[in-house]
Amino acid sequence: MDKNNISLEDAPLNSFHKKLTLYSSAAPFLDGYVLSIIGVVMLQMSNALQLTSLQEGLIAASSLIGMFMGGFIGGLFTDRLGRKTLYLLVLVALGVFSLAQFWVTTAWVLILLRLLLGIAIGADHPLATSLLAEFLPKKQRGSLLASLVMMWFVGAACAYIAGEFILQVGGDDAWRWALASAVVPAGLFLIMRIGTPESARWLLSKGRLAEADQVIKKVYGAAYSVNNLPEKSPEKDVSVWALFHSAYGKRIFFVTFFWTCSIIPQFAIYAFAPRILQTMGLTGDWASYGAVAITLMFVMGCFVAVKLVNPLGRRKLLLHSFLWSGLALLLLGLFPDGPAIMILVLFGGYAVFIGGAQVLQYVYPNELFPTEIRGSAVGLATSLSRIGAAVGTYLVPISLTTIGIGNTMLVAFGVSVVGFVVSLFMAPETRSMDLHLAGSLEH
User: Fold this and answer.
1) Most CB atoms within 10 A, among 226, 232, 288, 421?
2) How far apart are CA 292 and CA 258, in angstroms?
């Protein structure tokens, strides 16, 4: 076979692609770990530092605020400086800030460190997924990018397991050891990432053809070259400002809106599942077991969506995800006092069906923008989506006490309807497109 005629988009998946997928999962894993570990140790930490309720809230929210800041900043830097250097530096920062939590003596220092941790995690989202998207063959790009979402739940589960174990054996300083424990996965991911090459597409966008050629030969073999990469020259006049107007402005609106509409109910339900279930009549162990079951259903929904993202296509998967998860929320809103088994089934149904929108949060942003602004686009969408996460998490307890559980679920249904309508009119199909064509304005 003449490899000179093979596009790298059609090259077979190799061991490098699989390893890079694992290395790039650091962002969602550490996102889930860092956000979850704080809840495990909050009681002991609050007693040790004599925290006020305001300080507790700020400590819990500071990482989300940091992710809002870090997403767009990280995207800008990864487009200007490349993917490779920051791919390592963010994990160095994560390790340092995690370890520094061990020695905190005041709430405000801890708030600052959690903010910096959030900035580092937020920065890793756009650069890691951009680098991965720019290497993956088109047949596997959607499913492997989508699979990263499940690592958030793996990180959260590891945080709960590690945190509870440390609290059992760590004594009065257990909370310090638990918070600092994030240095372990950060260090392991850093070691794995050492030696990762720069994105050949980014090198080409900067006119560095010889370096791009070397990377391609290293990853794919000596028989391949830049001639096998469809993306041979940078887009004309594409800058980060294109994200705020014209056709790329419409794309960032679509990505941000569907992402926000999917995570407002998702974050709220995940964070307050036991309280919501208790409000709907599930008491005692039922509420705890139900919350665990819902978490497992979220993972199952992501797994099923990963399998469907190619055969069903991006657009259909997104529309079906909003449609059926929204229906589950509608029924929960209409029958908040229904039998316990019905409540659990409907919550489980929501968790499974929202999986499509969840996994596409990593796929669409990387496919709909060219190499020159891909990192910035993913970073901006990541940052703006955190506003939705914060709003949803903040308003749920207020909503439960003011308008009741039924109306709260109906509001969540309304959010899903908005997501469906926006997707119906704006969601494109990029399933079988080369990356450079999906990111151009010609389709």
Assistant:
1) 226
2) 26
Q: Which amino acid is at 142?
A: G
For residue 256, CA distances in Å to 138, 210, 249 come to 23, 36, 10
What residue segments make up the domains of the chain, in order of their start? Answer: 3-196, 240-438
DSSP class of 271? H
Among residues 65, 84, 357, 62, the alpha carbon closest in space to that of 202 is found at 84
CA geometry: angle 384, 386, 387, nearest 5 deg: 70
Q: Assess contact for 141 and 133: CB atoms under 8 A.
A: yes
Residues 59 and 150: beta-carbon distance below 8 Å: no
Question: Quick one: pLDDT band at residue 274, thresholds 50, 70, 90?
Answer: low
Q: What is the pLDDT of residues 129-162, one digit of tens each?
A: 999 999 999 899 999 999 998 898 888 888 888 9
Q: What are phi and psi of 230, to 5 degrees?
A: -60, -30
On the CB side of 347, how many CA atoms lie within 13 Å of its CA?
27
In this predicted structure, the answer to whether residue 3 has a pLDDT above a threshold of 80 is no
Tell whether the torsion through CA atoms of 379, 381, 382 and 383 is positive or negative: positive
DSSP class of residue 49 equals H
What's the confidence (pLDDT) of residue 2? 47
The fold adopted by the segment(s) 240-438 is Growth Hormone; Chain: A; (1.20.1250)
Instruction: Indicate whether 272 pLDDT > 60.
Output: no
- Amino acid, single-letter form, for residue 392: G
Helices (H), 170-280: 174-180, 183-193, 200-205, 209-220, 246-279
pLDDT digits (tens, 9 = 90+) for 96-121: 999 999 999 999 999 999 999 999 99
382 contacts 67 by C-beta, under 8 angstroms: yes
Helix (H) / strand (E) containing 301? helix 285-308
User: Do 240-438 and 3-196 have the same topology in CATH?
Assistant: yes
Of the candidates 147, 148, 158, the one whose C-alpha atom is nearest the C-alpha of residue 186 is: 158
| CB-CB contact of 351 with 297 (8 Å) | yes
Using DSSP's 3-state secondary structure scheme, residue 307 falls into: helix
CATH superfamily label, 3-196? MFS general substrate transporter like domains (1.20.1250.20)
- pTM for this entry: 0.85
Q: Cα torsion at 226, 230, 233, 238 (round to 10°)?
A: -140
**Helix axis angle, 285-308 relative to 246-279, nearest 10°?**
150
For the cut 70, the answer to whether the pLDDT of residue 234 exceeds it is: no
Q: How many residues does the chain have?
A: 443
